[in-house]
Design brief:
Elements: H1 2-22, H2 32-43, E1 46-48, E2 51-65, E3 78-93, E4 97-103, E5 106-110, E6 118-130, E7 134-146, E8 158-171, E9 176-189, H3 199-203, E10 205-216, E11 222-235, E12 244-255, E13 261-274, E14 282-296, E15 299-308, E16 321-334, E17 337-349, E18 369-383, E19 386-399, E20 404-416
Antiparallel strand pairs: 1-2, 2-3, 2-20, 3-4, 3-5, 4-6, 5-6, 6-7, 7-8, 8-9, 9-10, 10-11, 11-12, 12-13, 13-14, 14-15, 15-16, 16-17, 17-18, 18-19, 19-20
Length: 419
């Protein structure tokens, strides 16, 4: 009897959904997210039946690096490139449901250091259900990447991530909206120690987050936001002491893409409560900003900033403070030519409050380090916003208390779609 009722209710819900999809579009206003999604479908450059298609080609890091592993002695230089397509597919159904799929398979090639060669891939599948005043989104994404994941070390472990997510955005008025989002991340490292560190035992984990976020759009150029987030981190290795609960608040501004400004500014506070006995609660200011401005018709400036507390890859049962600041400028002496200069500065530190150190581990302060990069670039426009060019630079990392200093020089060619 209960199964019959469930089947009847499910059938009725399916019929209602089909009738709603096939019915006429409402005349009421829609959410800003719905408008953005429909605009992406409308401006996709290719069509194949009901599908809207967007293709791109990624070519980067094509050149020579004098110190592939960033070591302070016996530097290894090599030639490399990363190449692969970027594919986005949209399937709108009566402008009420939009399916979105993307995939980015890339091959990373090194001429001499063959162990660093790899196939990487990122895959996303999601659906949006658009109502006049709210949007429902759900999907999953996965990535299988061999790459640097921390500035603490230059090795490239292979990391697999599987993420399931869902959200509901409700728009109260043309200027105000609120969203509730759930996310579950599974992080898995390849087997085997690297340079004496067993990252699988240290960092395999499951993360769950719930985020409540509000938006206020004061003008056509930007959207203010404020969010609160709870996170739960559970490590796969029972001997790992990184299990914790996290609490965060963020606020900032999202620039709506335009000719004059693009990007996002976010500042907040993150508080970590470890579950292992004897570990202290700790927290600190966090932030993430990436903004570019058109200063004049011929000059564009950019700025980036980040402060975070990621898991350490070299200190067991610990996190570290990560600071990063970058600035750059691009000049367009003629329409088809772009000249770039960028400067980046960063620091890693291990305050005593950031978790318990394992017995016998080195003093965290001794592993503090700073780094900086200078680079110049020249790009030539190929078509519209696409260009090709060269970037040359110098990277320096310094750990003064350990007496270590490493540097690298590089020159890379790449394609860009941000001309």
């Amino acid at each position: 009897m209960d199964k019959t009722r469930v089947k009847t209710k499910s059938g009725a819900a399916l019929v209602i959904l089909v009738l709603w999809i096939l019915g006429p579009n409402p005349l009421r206003s829609e959410t800003w997210l719905g408008q953005s999604l429909r605009n992406m479908c409308r401006t996709a450059p290719w069509r194949w039946g009901p599908f809207r298609l967007q293709f791109g080609l990624s070519l980067r890091d094509m050149g020579y690096d004098t110190n592939v592993y960033g070591t302070d002695e016996k530097a290894v230089g090599d030639y490399s490139f990363t190449l692969g397509p970027d594919v986005n597919v949209y399937l709108p159904i009566k402008n009420k449901i939009i399916f979105h799929f993307s995939e980015s398979p890339h091959y990373v090639y090194f001429l001499e250091t063959r162990a660093e060669r790899a196939w990487n891939n990122a895959l996303l599948g999601e659906a949006y259900i658009l109502f006049p005043n709210f949007v429902v989104n759900f999907g999953l994404d996965s990535a299988n990447l061999k790459q640097r994941i921390s500035l603490e070390t230059e090795i490239r472990p292979r990391v697999r991530t599987e993420n399931i997510f869902g959200s509901l955005l409700y728009q109260f008025s043309p200027k105000t909206s609120v969203s509730l989002a759930l996310r579950r991340n599974q992080v898995t490292f390849d087997n085997g120690p690297f340079e004496g560190f067993d990252y699988k035992a240290m960092l395999d984990r499951t993360e769950n987050f719930i985020t409540l976020k509000s938006y206020y759009q004061r003008s056509l150029n930007g959207r203010y936001f404020f969010d609160i987030e709870y996170g739960s981190i559970d490590c796969e290795n029972p001997q790992n002491n990184n299990d914790a609960d996290s609490y965060a608040v963020h606020g900032g501004l999202e620039y709506i893409p335009s000719v004059k400004a693009n990007g996002k500014i976010s500042l907040g506070y993150l508080w970590i409560r470890p579950r292992a006995p004897g570990q202290k609660n700790f927290g600190g200011l966090v932030g993430d900003a990436q903004v570019s401005f058109r200063l004049t018709r011929m000059v564009r400036a950019r700025m980036s900033f980040r402060r975070d507390m990621p898991y350490s890859m070299v200190m067991a049962d610990s996190r570290y403070f990560f600071y990063f600041f970058g600035t750059g400028i691009s000049a367009y002496p003629i329409r088809s030519l772009r000249l770039d200069y960028d400067f980046n500065l960063g620091k890693i530190s291990y305050p005593d409050s950031l978790g318990r150190q394992s017995a016998g581990a080195p003093d965290p302060a001794d592993y503090s380090l700073d780094f900086q990069t200078h680079s110049v670039g020249l790009f030539i426009r190929l078509k519209r916003n696409m260009g090709i060019g060269l970037t040359a630079g110098r990277w320096i990392r310094n750990a003064p208390l350990l007496g270590q200093k490493s540097d690298r020089n590089f020159i890379f060619g790449s394609l860009t779609t941000d001309f």
